[in-house]
Design a protein that fits this description.
Amino acid/polyamine transporter I, 366 residues, globular, single chain, 16 helices, mainly alpha
């Protein structure tokens, strides 16, 4: 069982809002509109809202799971429920998920930056820069640094949301009609495609021990998810209204494409400002998932987190350099979304039941 961190390593509960929201908002929101639209058409925004409601329920279940047991993180919970051997295997699967999520964000951002700004720069070079940035930030910083970065980057980038609404003056609202035309199967496929963009809330399983006022964790986590849901739904509505259906079907980075119409007297290409700034948006993602990996390494191999940092940074870079073409990167990101769907959208309900049964059985045996 992992030791509970002392108070100097803990943060106030209100920071959970920023941690959850910034863990969710990252690369996916740049191009999620097309992915959902292909499945649910003009009802794509409804699929986002359904996904958001489901996540609210999952967050409630996660918090109830953590409160109902003396084991307040997912690694200890797995050992408690499944035993040492099976628990170790499942914990390893969780760490692999964090590794895949980190690498997918790494690859997605580098590919976007190279496509729009630096076409001749090697992908491995961009990946190396982001991995080194992650190591530099986390080495000696720990969880409090992750929380601080999430807080600061939220306020440093929230103004981008206002700019996203600029294309509304060109919107054709007829594109949103008719409403509720998608079949239940199409809507469910849309919800599934939303999963990658909305992932990140599962970090609650890792950060919970590091929050001081645990009775407030649930409230702030729900607020973070609410803001994410409203933001993703809003950019989806704007994209559907702005692009024609044929355009949106083939527009890979819809949010970035909308930025191209924004003009300022002193800036010729506004998207050239947004892409470097988007590094601040994904930075909390990178730090959070890498830090979660180091926690997993500590639980699995009983190594210090600073050693785990170098281990997982090296693994992430090694995986990243395997991918060269956009098609393989997209396939990898889809696999991460599918893996994350089962681990984050479905598994928490089973874990809650298993924890309750194990806790009840342990209490009855006394």
């Amino acid at each position: 069982m992992m030791k509970t961190p002392n108070e100097r390593l803990s943060v106030n509960a209100y920071l959970v809002f920023f941690l959850v929201h910034t863990a969710q908002i990252g690369l996916g929101i740049v191009g999620v509109q097309r992915v959902i639209f292909v499945e649910a058409r003009q009802d794509a925004w409804i699929a986002v809202l359904i996904s958001g409601l489901w996540i609210h329920l999952i967050v409630f279940v996660i918090c109830q799971t953590l409160k109902s047991s003396e084991h307040d993180n997912i690694f200890s919970l797995h050992t408690f429920v499944y035993g040492r051997v099976l628990g170790w295997i499942i914990n390893a699967a969780v760490v692999v998920y964090f590794l895949m999520a980190y690498t997918s964000i790494l690859l997605g951002y580098v590919e976007m930056a190279l496509t729009w700004m630096y076409p001749d720069f090697p992908l491995w070079g961009g990946a190396l820069i982001l991995v080194l940035l992650t190591v530099y930030a986390l080495y000696g910083g720990g969880f409090r640094l992750v929380a601080g970065v999430s807080f600061l980057t939220f306020f440093m980038t929230i103004w981008i949301v206002v700019v996203v609404f600029q294309p509304l003056k060109y919107a054709e609202w007829i594109h949103l009609l008719p409403i509720l035309e998608a079949t239940p199967k199409q809507m469910m496929n849309g919800v599934l495609k939303t999963s990658y963009t909305m992932l990140g809330f599962e970090v609650l399983y890792i950060i919970y021990p590091f929050v001081k006022e645990k009775e407030r964790v649930h409230r702030y986590a729900q607020l973070g998810v609410l803001l994410t849901t409203l933001l993703v739904a809003a950019v989806t509505v704007i994209a559907i209204a702005f692009f024609s259906p044929k355009q949106l079907d083939v527009t890979i980075w819809a949010s970035l494409s909308m930025f191209t119409i924004i003009k300022f007297p002193f800036i010729e290409r506004f998207e050239y400002i947004v892409i470097p700034l988007w590094l601040l948006v994904i930075l909390p993602n990178l730090l959070m998932f890498m830090w979660a990996m180091t926690r997993g390494g500590k639980a699995l191999f009983h190594i210090k987190q600073k050693y785990g940092l170098f281990l997982f940074a090296g693994l992430s870079f090694a995986v990243a350099v395997i991918f060269e073409k956009r098609a393989t990167i997209n396939k990898f990101i889809d696999q991460v979304g599918w893996y994350g769907f089962w681990l984050s959208f479905v598994y928490p309900f089973f874990l809650y039941v298993f924890v309750r049964i194990k806790t009840w059985a342990k209490g009855s045996a006394k």
